[in-house]
Design a protein that fits this description.
With about 240 residues, the chain is α/β, with parallel strands linked by helices. Helix content is about 15%, strand content about 50%.
Length: about 240
């Protein structure tokens, strides 16, 4: 399988995020130098053939890396592993996914803290409808030198149809003391009564579903500070059937 390679190296604070649109198997490697700040917006669209996307990040001392993933469509296997190797490194992962019809996705996000006093959260938030099936794994790993790290993992899923399926799999691996690390997961379902509430106020079923999706995912989209990058992410979500 042919694979594209993308390498991003940031040595100072970014003024604008790096936006990457992926429609084929791709490996993305990001390095953030000491004290630098970087934001990577990755929009991944399913293709006629299965695609594999591998993302890796290296965060040096005092540096910050913010990943924003938007994953849409079928046949996607996507993994992200971000390592805070320096003291005070911060890795934040915000991940939106949406699958419909018979689409399948396998997603995994992992923050590794091998330096002291690290930070950053993983937030995975997705929508499944029809007979879609998504496996979403999140992992926080704190090494022996990771004392003082504060981190959190949360997974939130909106099920629009009873036939849709999402496996939300959280994990923590901690090898030292004096850390704060925890996780949470929620599953919300849209019932016929919910849709009837909208319809009784003149809002058609399809429009009600769209409003549910926009409201559910809007919090993550708002974390994209750059207006152009946010508009590009919103457009990609609106184009997904």
């Amino acid at each position: 399988m042919q694979r594209s390679d993308i390498v991003v190296s940031i040595e100072k604070a970014q003024t604008e995020p790096t936006v990457i649109v992926v429609e084929e198997s791709t490996e993305i490697r990001v390095r953030v130098g000491s004290g630098a700040r970087a934001s990577i917006v990755c929009i991944c669209r399913g293709a006629p053939l299965p695609i594999h996307v591998m993302q890796s990040g290296e965060v040096a001392a005092g540096a910050t890396l913010h990943w924003i993933n938007i994953t849409l469509g079928d046949g996607i296997t996507q993994s992200l592993e971000s390592t805070c190797s320096g003291e005070g490194g911060v890795s934040t992962v915000d991940w939106i996914f949406r699958a419909s019809d018979h689409e399948k996705q396998t997603l995994s996000a992992k923050n590794i803290f091998s330096g002291a006093r690290g930070g950053g959260e993983i937030t995975m938030k997705g929508v499944a409808e029809g007979k879609a099936h998504v496996k979403a794994s999140g992992m926080i790993e704190i090494g022996e030198k990771g004392a003082g790290t504060h981190t959190y993992l949360s997974q939130h899923v909106l099920m629009l149809d009873p036939t849709a399926k999402v496996d939300a799999i959280p994990g923590l691996e901690i090898r030292t003391n004096d850390v704060k690390a925890s996780h949470s997961a929620t599953v919300s379902r849209v019932t016929p009564e919910d849709l009837f509430y909208f319809e009784s106020r003149g809002i058609a079923g399809l429009e009600a579903r769209r409003m549910y999706i926009d409201g559910f995912l809007g919090e993550i989209l708002s974390r994209i500070a750059d207006p152009k990058a946010r508009a590009q992410a919103e457009e990609a979500l609106q184009m997904h059937p």
